[in-house]
Amino acid sequence: MEIIIQPNSQQASELAARIVARTVREKPHAVLGLATGNTPLQLYRNLVRMHRESGLDFSGVTSFNLDEYVGIPPAHPSSFHSYMWAHLFSSINMPRERVNIPDGMTGDIPAACRKYEQAIRSAGGVDIQILGIGTNGHIGFNEPSSSLSSRTRIKTLTEETRLDAAAAFGGEEAVPTHVITMGLGTILDSKMCLLLAFGKKKAKAISLAAEGPVTAMVPGSILQMHPRAIFVLDKDAASDLKMADYYVWINEHKPDWQKY
Ligand code: F6R
Predict the structure, then answer these.
(1) pTM for the whole structure
(2) How far is CA 61 from CA 20, 21, 132, 169, 202, in A?
(3) Is ligand 1 within 6 A of the CB of residue 102?
(4) d(C-alpha 23, C-alpha 30), whole Å
């Protein structure tokens, strides 16, 4: 596990964008795993800028989103479909047919989940999985108590997560109760996991995920089992880490070939 602490979310997002851009340049047919929410917004803005200014080419890239709300049509303003088109896909040259987002309106959720897993496998697996983390430690929408080897499936949101999403839906009552999410096992299969977290309200989840025991009660802690998990944090999100000084020292003393 690599922990990179940046002075602010802007610099952290620029660094994360460099990591994603490097993958796309080295592998034009890369498969990206994408997250929604507030956290990756600046990362997506940077990718759009790199596409416009330096021709970062997404024409061969395939994407799989982590999750979608059940019962929310793609055109709903708070769907993750709408989010992705608004913040990334409309502004880069990724072909529409290579975009994959779970279908929250499917009539057969188990079959749709199996198909999603199969599509990820057929695409060759995810090269780089972007992740945020919930205040309760969830990644994707794998809430506390999720099986550490779970696959794409339906999940019930916790009260805490529904409260966190209330603003986007104009009140907690309007937040859907269920989601389709990639599982922790699905996430673990990706070749690289890039988790971003910003702000003091993520500090506890980050310290538990990075330095606590691996437990289903903190789903993000499963990333300790991943061979290539990178946490890119701002100072506030890193503020509860016991070994923060060591992580900073590591980054300051990296050989050039290891730098991003
Ligand atoms: C979203 C997702 C969630 C979010 C998490 C943090 O696709 O999978 O795990 O990453 O809830 O959300 P923000 O970034 O809004 O704090």
Answers:
(1) 0.97
(2) 11, 11, 21, 31, 31
(3) no
(4) 7
Q: For a ligand 1 pocket test, name from 34, 36, 101 the mutation site with the most ligand atoms within 8 angstroms of its C-beta.
A: 36
CA distance 32 to 179: 20
pLDDT one digit per residue (tens) for the chain, 260 residues: 999 999 999 999 999 999 999 999 999 999 999 999 999 999 999 999 999 999 999 999 999 999 999 999 999 999 999 999 999 999 999 999 999 999 999 999 999 999 999 999 999 999 999 999 999 999 999 999 999 999 999 999 999 999 999 999 999 999 999 999 999 999 999 999 999 999 999 999 999 999 999 999 999 999 999 999 999 999 999 999 999 999 999 999 999 999 99
Count CB neighbours of 7 within 10 A: 9
Domains identified in the chain and CATH numbers: 2-253 (3.40.50.1360)
Active site residues: 67, 136, 138, 143
**Euclidean distance between CA atoms 219 and 99, whole angstroms:** 26
For the record, the structure tokens of 220 come out as: 């993000």
| Adjacent-strand bridge partners of 34 | 65
CA distance 248 to 260: 14
For ligand 1, whether the C-beta of 140 sits within 6 Å is: yes
Q: What are phi and psi of 92, to 5 degrees?
A: -130, 175
The residue whose CB lies within 8 Å of the most ligand 1 atoms, and thus the one to mutate among 138, 152, 190, is 138
